[in-house]
Amino acid sequence: VLASEPTSTLLDEVLLRRGRAAEKLDDPDGAREAYQRLLREYPESALLDEARQRLASLDGTDGAAAGASS
Q: How far is it between the farthest Cα atoms of the chain?
């Protein structure tokens, strides 16, 4: 989906779901990559807060630092 529809408005949700799936599969690097991509490529997404929180959880921070770094 990501490669075939690069301008889709649903890609932020796809990335969030990819990150969640990677977390469930015990793949923190894959989850981190998906969340970081969402933050970088979709700065206006309504899903940014959740992506930041999940990224902070993976990094062992409270979320404030993850939000500040993007």
A: 35
Query: How many angstroms separate the CA atoms of 29 and 5, rounded?
Result: 24
Q: Give me the pLDDT at residue 8, please.
A: 56
Helix (H), strand (E), coil (C) string for the chain = CCCCCCCCCCHHHHHHHHHHHHHHCCCHHHHHHHHHHHHHHCCCCCCHHHHHHHHHHHHCCCCHHHHHCC
d(CA 57, CA 55): 5
Six token digits for residue 44: 């206006």
Q: Is the dihedral of CA 24, 53, 40, 13 positive or negative?
A: positive
Reported as a single tens digit per residue, the pLDDT across 8-55 is 579 999 999 999 999 999 999 999 999 999 999 999 999 999 999 999
